[in-house]
Amino acid sequence: MKKFRKEQIEKEIQRVLGKCFIEDIKLDEIKSGFVSVTYVKLDNEGSYADVSVSVMSRDPFDKSVILAALKSKEKILRKAISENIPLRHTPVVRVHLDNGIEEGVRITNLIHSLNK
To answer: How far is 92 from 113, CA to CA, in rounded Å?
Structure first.
């Protein structure tokens, strides 16, 4: 798959899944936090879509519960992709936790503590 086409599909999958998290997936676990799709990475064949999600929650325990709930809904996410994006083969969705925001906040706090 060409790089430009792959990037377009990744962006479209990110859009569709973000909309799906807001409108379609109703989980009791998500009520205690906020979930957003940070990025999507397709493999070279387009068979797998690694979806990184950022979970904003007060309790770190909630993140693992929310991630487990999202992993249980991977088939629903794949169906949403197949219904909204015309592809020959719909990729298998694999959900991963993205800790980039938390790491950025932690590093910023460290820098501020050094400046004091």
So the answer is: 43
The values of phi and psi at residue 2, to 5°, are: -70, 150
Distances (CA, A) of 114 to 27, 54, 101, 104, 107: 41, 27, 20, 15, 11
Cross-strand partners of 53: 37, 97
Structural domain containing residue 23: 3-115
Q: Give pTM, 2 decimals.
A: 0.81
CATH code, domain with 7 = 3.30.300.20
Number of domains in the chain: 1
The per-residue pLDDT for range 54-69, each reduced to its tens digit, is 887 777 667 788 888 8
Q: Is-contact 90 81, C-beta < 8 A? A: yes
Distance CA 24, CA 77 (A): 9
